[in-house]
Amino acid sequence: MLNIKPVSDLRNYNKLLEEVTNDQPVFLTKNGRGMYAIINIEEYDRLKASIEIVEKLKQAEKSGVVDLSDARKKFGL
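Structure tokens predicted for Antitoxin (77 residues):
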């Protein structure tokens, strides 16, 4: 289940940060709309690394080094 809080809950940020786990970010809303996601630093690092890998694969595909559709089949993506 998503953990959604108003941004005003940051006033008590210690309590809010206790709710952040590797697999459970806290989403903050402002004026009823989603604005921010607070994630654990380990999860941030994992997401960043994943994005970097995808970007490198896209660059490799553009240069003709690798075909992403073959990689997707190979790894079941």
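Helices lie at 13-18, 41-62, 68-75.
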